[in-house]
Amino acid sequence: MDESTEERESNLDESEEESSGEYREPLATLQHNMMLGTQVAGVYRDLCLQVIQHRYECDLQGARQHLESETNLLFDAMKTELRDKIRRRIVRGGTSPQSGDNRGVSQTSRQTKVSALQKRNHNNRTALNTGQFETFR
Q1: Is residue 113 part of a domain?
Q2: Mean pLDDT score of the chain
Q3: Which of 57, 103, 110, 117 has CB atoms 3.0–4.6 Å from 74's, for a disulfide?
C-alpha cells in the first residue's frame, strides 16, 4: 500500500471512531445549532400558549360584560315600563298605583317582553357558567 491509501484508511478509521477533527467540529456546530433551535421552539410554544390564554380571558371578559349589559337593559326596561304605568295612572284620573287599575296597559304584552328578556338573560348566564359563550367583538 502506498502512503495516500494508508492516510485515507487512517482518516476513515478516525471518522468511524468519531475522533477525527474533520468529523467532530461540524458535529459540534450541528449539535449547538440543534440545541438553539430547540430552545427557540420552546420559547415560541410558551408565547403561543400565552396568546391562547389571553384570548380566552378576553372572550370571558366580553361574555361577562355582555351579560351585565343585558341585565342592565332588562332592569332599565322594567323600570321604564313601571314609571310609564305609574304616570299613565296618575294622568288618567289620579288613581294610586296600588288601586289595581290596569287601563291602557297590556299585561300580556308586558309579560311577553319581560319573559323574553329573562330567557335571554338566563341563556347568557348558562353559557357563561358552562364556558359555551360566543365572542362579542
Answers
A1: yes
A2: 80
A3: 117
10 Å Cβ neighbour count for 64?
Answer: 13
Q: Residue 64 sits in which domain range?
A: 3-92+101-130
Q: What is the pLDDT of residue 1?
A: 60
If one compares 29 and 103, the residue with the highest pLDDT of the two is: 29
pTM: 0.46
Judge whether 137 lies within some domain: no
Give me 44's grid cell. 415560541
The answer to the question of residue 78 being in a domain is yes
The answer as to whether 135 is a domain residue is: no
